[in-house]
Specification:
heterodimer, A: mainly alpha, Methane Monooxygenase Hydroxylase, Chain G, domain 1, 3 helices, flat, B: two-stranded antiparallel sheet, two-stranded antiparallel ribbon
Amino acid sequence: MPSSYPEIYFPILVQVLIAIAIAAGMVVGSWLLGKRVRTRAKDMPYESGMVPVGSTRERFSVKFYLVAMVFILFDVELVFLYPWAVVYGELGLYGFLVMFLFIDLILWGFYYIWKKGVLDWSREEPAGSQA
Amino acid sequence: MNFFVLSLLKAAIVISVLMVSLLYLQWVERKVIAHIQLRMGPYRVGPHGLLQPFADVLKLLTKEGFIPSHVNLFFYLLAPFLAVSLALISIVVVPFGPEVELFGVRTTMQLTDLNIGILFVLAISSLSVYAVTFAGWASNNKYSLLGGLRSAAQMISYELPLALSLGAPLLVAGSLSLREIVLAQQGTILGILPNWMIFQLPAPQLVGFLVFLIAAFAETNRIPFDLPEAENELVAGFHTEYSSLKFASFFMAEYANMITMTAITTTVFLGGWLPPFPETLGSNWAPAVIFALLGALAVYYSRQAPRPKDRRTLPWVGLALFAVAAIFLIPAAHPLLVPPFWFLAKAGFLMFVFIWVRGTLPRFRYDQLMQFAWKFMFPVALVNLFATALLVALFPR
């Protein structure tokens, strides 16, 4: 059985190198092969054949930011759950109670954002924002 | 044998099997979808369209690799690169079989037994959200931007139930190493059911399995969660502005992610390489029987096939299947062939489910998709984790 660090991580290094080689090959390969012709119409952003209207760099719905923030909160909670789950066999019922208290606190936050409507995507949004 | 040579050899085998299955997964998907819709599917290139994947690759290779002038070049090129490279890495920790001895060399049927295997997989798979987001943003196209944003929100939302539902098997197995999770699933329950995570007492993970599978659909952007590329509202979503091999990269990444997800599901919930019934009941002989039955079916069907061509070719297919069955009959080859067979059979079945669902279900609406993730999947996964924890604490092994 491999036990030392080089023996465990060498295959990962090999796989990463193979993956990078394949990925780079695919990105560069399409540049090397095939002819390229530029025309004005081809250079436009594709909008179903119409002349593009306005800029893409517009502001978009705040919902996306909210989801990202809520995700960070619960993902950090998850990071605490993983080591707890691995050593759970030694902790037993005590471990259950402690983690239950911790998650309970977080769930009150979840209840709050639920009631605040962060998770309701179909609700009418304030004027001026667009999704 | 030198360890480094051995691992290079194993990496070569795994990557070639992975690439071939990537090619043929698309063929299988098109065939299955076609038959669900009462069509024939690819039929022209090679017998039953078997050479279609190569034709597709050739076509995409020779297409114009166009880079529009309105894109942000660095991120535009980085996105397909990230998508492919990240999708191909995770397979490194998946165990395909137990420890075997071949020509006097002992090795595990796994590239590396990382003791934080599951964390590694989650880390790599959560990075792939960047590929889609970069692609959507850098394309400087409104459809792409919407697709990329939707995808980012969707993937991070479904990552919570995905990771939470993985927590419960970890808790039962007490390890993050995928090999040890498989080893924790040995044996049977009441002598009939396999001791896999989805059946294992005291806390069967059926709910966790379903939550994980649904979240896996969302993570790989498959129907019914393919909002990022919803073609009838967003043209092609984040890959609207990509062509040629860069376009193919995203498809390859999607299929590679699908393979990784099915492999992880098999390993964590369905007992990995372990057979569905114990060796004492003859599970070592089951693959031979299955292949022989398939061969017999091919020969039988060839006698009444409607197409004259099939009448000539199907007996040969049957013969090939009999040959495979014969290989599986050799007892010396059992430890080498049977565990990967069960692993591939389970993973293959899950891939079929992925395709089956695509042929059956319509697409979600975006607000329904997000509400489903946060208001249903997340609480269910959390309750499942704590129910498991309580049961494990009350009935320790």
